[in-house]
What we know:
single chain, alpha/beta, eight-stranded parallel barrel, two-stranded antiparallel ribbon, 44% helix
Amino acid sequence: MEIGIDSFAMLLPDPDTGRLQSAVDRMESVLSEVELADQVGLDVFGMGEHHRENALDSAPAVILAAAAARTKSIRLTSAVAVLSASDPVRLFQEFATLDLISRGRAEIVVGRGSSVEAYPLFGFDLRDYDALFAEKLDLLLKIREQPNIKWQGRFRPAINGEGVFPRPHQPKLPIWLGVGGTPESFVRAGTLGLPLMVAIIGGSFERFLPLVELYRRAWLVAGHPAENHRIGVHALGFVGETDEAAKKAFFPGWFQMFTDAGRERGWPPPTQAQFEHMCGPGGAFLVGSPQTVAAKISHVNRTLGGIARITFQMSTAALDAEAMRRSIELLGTDVAPLVRGQLRD
């Protein structure tokens, strides 16, 4: 099982003063985090995409390219590239270039995006939310197969054999489909034979099993080899020396982020009780000591019938730089060996 971290490069307000972090300092901390993740042996680092005042990740490929120059082994991916509001040609070029810089460590996770600010920014209608994605995914996959194609769609000018370059170092640039809770998205990934990255930020892992089974069935119905499917999970997580230390470091930023999200989307504000439940055995947070987190990862693996990758979204703790670095260290040096030992047993 591959284990890694995802970052949203968010600027978080200081809980005492309310002031946002310096953008320059926050960007440096993000690059330091991926450098440390590489040093402690984590497998993958993902960069999100947002287009808002408190985020620095509107151009994830640029950040990942900077990370490539500072790392040696860790795989570098989007998490998630908002394909519906992007140009597939340009997205492919950016990640093919990243693949060359990193000597074959680039991947793309594409999705429709749960944050939708990119749509009006780039002139797209949210009523075309799914149609945009389906068309652009079709084009992206065709470009991946060969540089010169003829293609015509509804939302983008036609391509009439012009070449799409550069080509990546890897023979076939990995493209994952990022999904939330929409059944049709799971079926789409299985039908197309794409690896699946499931974002689980609330509820329980168990409620996603029927959706994952939709993916597996669609995969087989489409005639893809059963042994080739890959399922990944993206979850909120943080590792501390103890359960209480991990929760103490993670809670303030989580509370702020989800309070802000609730204000935008009409949700009620989160509570301490909800947080404690989500950190408990029945919740979907991977927050706690190395032993607690490793046991929960094993639970996720069993519950979903086997997963190939799990990535931690721990950016809400970014204000506590020391705790953040220690979490990354513990994830690589303690949690990963524990999980792999449990899988071998």
